[in-house]
């Protein structure tokens, strides 16, 4: 109307008719007709039935090509916000879980072999950090997708006097897209979106795998509540962590959605191609699935407890304080590679005697190397070992407390929760 392409009364008629169509759709009364080809033509034809001649101006300076791209970007923008909110909710659940278990030491693993002692809080916060990068990728993705294709028309733009900057601003976009061919033909914004979802899904799958393992009898570190567990149809003793198994499994589906769209787009010439009609289903599926995974993971985190007694019984195995003992020798002036060898021999001695490093006498330590002194016992045992970690980002108590406070403040949590 502002460009003189329709009158004020025509505008009012069109808007009134569209409002009526929206009400019909919401009530389930709108009749979708296959002979009208698609949603665009169904709406335009229905509008013509309602308001008559003014409806024929609805498609002025528009193509289905730029309309669907605009709709898709708007939808992805909203979906991105929803996923970020779900990520924040899971982060909050993990931080709250960490606060509940302040000071609890668990075995840290590499290659799924016992490596060093870590605070449970530190381990949980590792997932919080990964999820934060997932949210950051979505923020970046949202910034790049928030440009408006409307007005690009079929591919070449239009000679009609339209104001693309006005419509872009009205729809909340950063700006109109600079190139009309690019505007209607590329789906890289969707590929980036699904890629971000896939990375998030992989992180959730890792969390699921770890918690499934920890809930097993072999570990026994996690006790899921009955509300997030299932039994067996034949084995009455079973208590399965099904939700996290499904989280682990559904990650494959999200990666599949990304691969599906990558293959769809790989051979398309400029500009719009009907193949792109197939781009919606994997996106809708990816969004629905990732939000479900995030919500289930958050609920699981809220309804599990850690078996502190079993964890404490498991800590002595594996000589988790060996690296701290090597650091002790380094602090005495010994080159690390030499200290590594000395501690390796100390561990071998413990294995042969079925004891822990802290059970060796000072004379036995001195037999291994005369550098050892009575202060060596300040480095032995998982509690002492934890106290020796001091580097930024480490599992030391002060470092982890600082990380906890950071996330409590960032997520707006109450420490007592």
Automatic annotation (TrEMBL):
One of its GO terms (molecular function) is argininosuccinate lyase activity. It holds the Pfam family ASL_C2. GO terms for cellular component: cytosol. This is argininosuccinate lyase. Residues 4-256 form the Fumarate lyase N-terminal domain. NCBIfam families: argH. SUPFAM superfamilies: L-aspartase-like (SSF48557). Residues 320-387 form the Argininosuccinate lyase C-terminal domain. It catalyses: 2-(N(omega)-L-arginino)succinate = fumarate + L-arginine. Its EC number is 4.3.2.1. Belongs to the lyase 1 family. Argininosuccinate lyase subfamily. Gene3D superfamilies: Fumarase/aspartase (C-terminal domain) (1.10.40.30), Fumarase/aspartase (Central domain) (1.20.200.10), Fumarase/aspartase (N-terminal domain) (1.10.275.10). InterPro entries: Arg_succ_lyase_C (IPR029419), Argininosuccinate_lyase (IPR009049), Fumarase/histidase_N (IPR024083), Fumarate_lyase_CS (IPR020557), Fumarate_lyase_fam (IPR000362), Fumarate_lyase_N (IPR022761), L-Aspartase-like (IPR008948). Keywords: Amino-acid biosynthesis, Arginine biosynthesis, Lyase. One of its GO terms (biological process) is L-arginine biosynthetic process via ornithine. Coiled coil: none annotated. Pathway: Amino-acid biosynthesis; L-arginine biosynthesis; L-arginine from L-ornithine and carbamoyl phosphate: step 3/3. It comes from Lithospermum erythrorhizon. It is an enzyme of class 4 (lyase).
């Amino acid at each position: 109307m502002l460009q003189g392409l329709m009158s004020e009364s025509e505008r009012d008629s069109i808007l009134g008719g569209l409002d009526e169509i929206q009400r019909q759709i919401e009530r389930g009364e709108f009749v979708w007709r296959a002979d009208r080809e698609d949603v665009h033509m169904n709406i335009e034809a229905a509008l013509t039935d309602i308001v008559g001649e003014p409806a024929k101006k609805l498609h002025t300076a528009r193509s289905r090509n730029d309309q669907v791209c605009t709709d898709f970007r708007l939808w992805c923008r909203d979906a991105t916000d929803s996923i970020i909110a779900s990520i924040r909710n899971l982060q909050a659940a993990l931080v709250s879980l960490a606060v509940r278990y302040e000071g609890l030491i668990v075995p840290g693993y590499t290659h799924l072999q016992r490596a060093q002692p870590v605070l449970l809080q530190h381990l949980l916060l590792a997932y919080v950090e990964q999820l934060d990068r997932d949210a950051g990728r979505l923020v970046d993705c949202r910034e790049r997708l928030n440009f408006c294709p409307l007005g690009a028309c079929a591919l070449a733009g239009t000679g009609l006097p339209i104001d693309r900057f006005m419509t872009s601003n009205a729809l909340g976009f950063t700006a109109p897209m600079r190139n009309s061919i690019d505007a209607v033909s590329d789906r890289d914004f969707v590929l980036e979106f699904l890629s971000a979802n896939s990375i998030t899904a992989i992180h959730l799958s890792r969390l699921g795998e770890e918690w499934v393992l920890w809930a097993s009898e072999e570990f026994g570190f996690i006790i899921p509540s009955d509300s997030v567990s299932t039994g067996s149809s034949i084995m009455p003793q079973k208590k399965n962590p099904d939700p996290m198994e499904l989280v682990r499994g559904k990650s494959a589906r999200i990666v599949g959605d990304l691969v599906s769209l990558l293959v769809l787009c790989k051979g398309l010439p400029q500009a719009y191609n009907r193949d792109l009609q197939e781009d919606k289903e994997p996106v809708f599926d990816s969004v629905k699935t990732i939000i479900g995974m995030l919500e289930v993971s958050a609920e699981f985190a809220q309804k599990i407890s850690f078996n502190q007694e079993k964890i404490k019984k498991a800590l002595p195995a594996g000589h988790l304080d060996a690296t701290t003992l090597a650091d002790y020798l380094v602090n005495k002036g010994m080159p690390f590679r030499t200290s590594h060898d000395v501690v390796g021999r100390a561990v071998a001695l413990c294995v042969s005697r079925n004891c822990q490093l802290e059970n060796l006498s000072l004379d036995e330590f001195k037999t291994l190397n005369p550098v050892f002194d009575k202060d060596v016992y300040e480095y032995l045992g998982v509690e002492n070992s934890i106290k020796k970690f001091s580097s930024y980002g480490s599992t030391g108590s002060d470092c982890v407390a600082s990380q906890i406070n950071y996330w409590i403040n960032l997520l707006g949590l109450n420490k007592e929760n």
